[in-house]
C-alpha cells in the first residue's frame, strides 16, 4: 500500500508509470560508506549491487568526494567548447588502458549515449545502418540503442533507425546450442554468424556485444567466442564494438575489460564504458581508433559529456582503483564469494546455477520443474532486503539474482552476504507458490 502523501505516492504522481522501483516498500537511501548504505529509518544494508554497478570502488570514497567538492567550488559549468585538464587527463588514461591502438576517447553522460555515439561512428564509418547484435543483449533505451537490444521486454518499441540482425552466442546457458561443448558451441555460433552475413548485401557496419551480458543475467559465452567472430568480421571490414558498461574497470577480476577474455585476435575497434568509472557521477564514453573516431563531420556531440566535476570524480576514482589493485581484489574476493555461494546453495532446488567471474556473480533460480522462476527472484530480493542485504535482479525471464558489490568488498563482507543469501534461498524454497510473502 502506498500511503497518501508519502514520497512513494508523490513519486507515482509525477513520474511515468513505466518507471518501476525495486521493492514493495520502495527504499529511500540517505547515505553510504564503503560497502554499506543506510535508509531513512536508519537501517544499514550491505550493498551487493552498487546501484547497478554504479558504485565502483566504495560509497562516499573520500578522494572522490574531495575531488567533486573542490571542482564544484571552482567551476561547474562548461561544455566541450573549452579545454579542461581533467577531461584530457582522464582521456589519456582511458585511451592507454583501453588496449586500442591510436585510441581516441569521447565522453558522454551515460552508457546509452556512449552506445549511441558508437553506433553513430560505426554507421558513418561504414556507410551502413546494418548492425549485428546478440540475442538477449541490453545496450540502453534510447531510440537507437533499443534497436540493438535483443529482448523485447527491455525495449518499449519495435521501431528503429537501424537494421539489426541478432546473432547467437551471447548467452551460454540458453538457446539451441546450449547443450554443446564450449568448442562446438563456438563453432555453431560462428557458422550462424557466417550464415547470417551470407544473407546480407555484405555491407554490415558492426557487431556490438557485451562480453558478459549484464541485464541479461550475468551470462557469458565461452572465452574466445568474440575472437572467433572477429576472424569472420575483420576481413569484411565489419567493426567489433565491445560494450563494457558493466564489464569494464576490472569488474570481472581476471581482466580489466571483458573483451580481454576474447583477445586472441586483438582488441575491439570500438569500446564503450559508463557506470562505475564515475562512482555515481554521470560519466560514459566511447573509445575508438583515430580513423574511426575522426570519421564524423561534427563539432561535438554532447554538451555535458566530460564536464569538469564528473571528470575530476572519474580521475580520483580511477586512481584509487589502480593504486589499490581493486581488480585483484575483485578476482580474489569474487573467487571466494562464488565458491562460498556454490557451497551454501548446493542442493537447494530453487538454485539452477551460480555463475560469474570476479565481482559479477549471478544466481539463476528455477521452479521445481526446472522452469525459470521470476517469483523466486522477486521473493529473494525482498527477503534479502529484510535481512539487510541489497542485491539486483535480471535475466531474460527476471529469474536471476545479480551480485555486483563495490570492488573493495572485504572477505568478511563476502562471507556475511553469502550467509544471508543462503538463508534467503532456503526460505524461498520453503515458501509455497504465490506471490505472498511468508
Ligand atoms: N550497456 C549496458 C551493458 C548496460 O548494462 C547499460 C545499463 N544497464 C547500458 C548500456 C545503458 O547505460 P545507461 O543506463 O547509463 O544509459
Automatic annotation (TrEMBL):
Gene3D superfamilies: Aspartate Aminotransferase, domain 1, Type I PLP-dependent aspartate aminotransferase-like (Major domain). It comes from the Bacteria. Keywords: Aminotransferase, Pyridoxal phosphate, Transferase. Its EC number is 2.6.1.44. InterPro entries: Aminotrans_3, PyrdxlP-dep_Trfase, PyrdxlP-dep_Trfase_major, PyrdxlP-dep_Trfase_small. GO terms for molecular function: transaminase activity. It is an enzyme of class 2 (transferase). Its cofactor is pyridoxal 5'-phosphate. Pfam families: Aminotran_3 (PF00202). Belongs to the class-III pyridoxal-phosphate-dependent aminotransferase family. Homotetramer. This is alanine--glyoxylate transaminase.
Amino acid at each position: 500500500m502506498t500511503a497518501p502523501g508519502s514520497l512513494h505516492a508523490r513519486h507515482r504522481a509525477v513520474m511515468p508509470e513505466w518507471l518501476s522501483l525495486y521493492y514493495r516498500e520502495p527504499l529511500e537511501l540517505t547515505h553510504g560508506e564503503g560497502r554499506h548504505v543506510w535508509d531513512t529509518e536508519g537501517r544499514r544494508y550491505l550493498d551487493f549491487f552498487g546501484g547497478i554497478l554504479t558504485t565502483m570502488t566504495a560509497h562516499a570514497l573520500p578522494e572522490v568526494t574531495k575531488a567533486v567538492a573542490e571542482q564544484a567550488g571552482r567551476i561547474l559549468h562548461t561544455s566541450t567548447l573549452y579545454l579542461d585538464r581533467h577531461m584530457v587527463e582522464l582521456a589519456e588514461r582511458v585511451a592507454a588502458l583501453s588496449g586500442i591502438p591510436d585510441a581516441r576517447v569521447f565522453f558522454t553522460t551515460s552508457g546509452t549515449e556512449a552506445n549511441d555515439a558508437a553506433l553513430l561512428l560505426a554507421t558513418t564509418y561504414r556507410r551502413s545502418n546494418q548492425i549485428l547484435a546478440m540475442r538477449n543483449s541490453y545496450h540502453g533505451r534510447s531510440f537507437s540503442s533499443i534497436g540493438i537490444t535483443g529482448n523485447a521486454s527491455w525495449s518499449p518499441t519495435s521501431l528503429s533507425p537501424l537494421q539489426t540482425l541478432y546473432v547467437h552466442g551471447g548467452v551460454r546457458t540458453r538457446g539451441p546450442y546450449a547443450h554443446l561443448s564450449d568448442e562446438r558451441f563456438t563453432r555453431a555460433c560462428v557458422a550462424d554468424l557466417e550464415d547470417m552475413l551470407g544473407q546480407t548485401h555484405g555491407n554490415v557496419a558492426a557487431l556490438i556485444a557485451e562480453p558478459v551480458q549484464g541485464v541479461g543475467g550475468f551470462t557469458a559465452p565461452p572465452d574466445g567466442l568474440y575472437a572467433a567472430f572477429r576472424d569472420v568480421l575483420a576481413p569484411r571490414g565489419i567493426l567489433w564494438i565491445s560494450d563494457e558498461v558493466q564489464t569494464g574497470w576490472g569488474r570481472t577480476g581476471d581482466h580489466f575489460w571483458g573483451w580481454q577474455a576474447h583477445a586472441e585476435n586483438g582488441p575491439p575497434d570500438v569500446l564503450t564504458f559508463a557506470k562505475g568509472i564515475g562512482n555515481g557521477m554521470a560519466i560514459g564514453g566511447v573509445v575508438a581508433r583515430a580513423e574511426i573516431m575522426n570519421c564524423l563531420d561534427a563539432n561535438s556531440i554532447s554538451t555535458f559529456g566530460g564536464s569538469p566535476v564528473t571528470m575530476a570524480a572519474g580521475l580520483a576514482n580511477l586512481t584509487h582503483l589502480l593504486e589499490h589493485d581493486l581488480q585483484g581484489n575483485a578476482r580474489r574476493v569474487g573467487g571466494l564469494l562464488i565458491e562460498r555461494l556454490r557451497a551454501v546453495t548446493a542442493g537447494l532446488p530453487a538454485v539452477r546455477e551460480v555463475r560469474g567471474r570476479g565481482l559479477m556473480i549471478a544466481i539463476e533460480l528455477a521452479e521445481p520443474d526446472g522452469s525459470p522462476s521470476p517469483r523466486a527472484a522477486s521473493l529473494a530480493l525482498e527477503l534479502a532486503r529484510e535481512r539487510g542485504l541489497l542485491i539486483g535482479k535480471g535475466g531474460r525471464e527476471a529469474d536471476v539474482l545479480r551480485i555486483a558489490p563495490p570492488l573493495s568488498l572485504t572477505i568478511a563482507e563476502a562471507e556475511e552476504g553469502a550467509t544471508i543469501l543462503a538463508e534467503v534461498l532456503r526460505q524461498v524454497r520453503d515458501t509455497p507458490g504465490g506471490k505472498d510473502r511468508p
